[in-house]
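Researcher: We're teaching a course module on how sequence relates to structure. For the next exercise, students receive a sequence and then see the predicted structure as tokens, so they can try to spot secondary structure elements on their own. Here is the exercise chain.
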Amino acid sequence: MVRRWTGRGWIGVVALGAALVGCSGDDSGTTETTTTSATTTTTTTTTDASTTDASTTGSPTGSPTSDSNSGSTTGEETTTGETTGPEPYCGDGVVDAGEECDDGNDVDTDACTTSCTMAVCGDGLVYEGVEVCDDGDRDNTDDCTNTCAAPACGDGFVQADEECDDGNDVDTDACTAACLTAVCGDGILYEGVEACDDGNDVDDDACSNTCAVATCG
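Model: And here is the predicted structure for the students to work with:
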């Protein structure tokens, strides 16, 4: 006798099959659920995140690359220090270290020489309006004295054409104002030495040739 499967019977078979599938022990991470009805079958598949291959995720492997903007990169070099002008020199009009003066010209006859030193007597340069001469030596008996003046009787320096020079204009001392040594007969009374001096060689007048006053007898 042939048994007929009713609708309830088919449902039981399907349920039994589903139970067998759930107990199969598949641990692959993929779960397949099948729902079957008498007329419709639906299949849903999910993937466990734990099955993702680690080699396809995370940071890439290999040699590290250098970051072109890393902190080790230095910026543009900057230079420090003040910008200086031309080197100072004598004649630039500015008194620099080692200079006594600097008038910015090349005139050697004013107060500041071309070597940037103050004009002084004895430097060999004639300071116009102040010095008559300047021979650059310390000899007072030549044509230019140490005071940078031309030699003259009465300057206190005995020159070649002078017998004496006491630096004054007194005529009655040992050196006359003419820079001559006082002598009897020069017509100049040498005080304290001569009693008279008439400037002649006549011996029978009031003043003898020895510059003494004539007396009777």
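Model: If you want an answer key for the exercise: The beta strands are 30-36, 41-47. Residues 25-74 have pLDDT under 50 and may be disordered.
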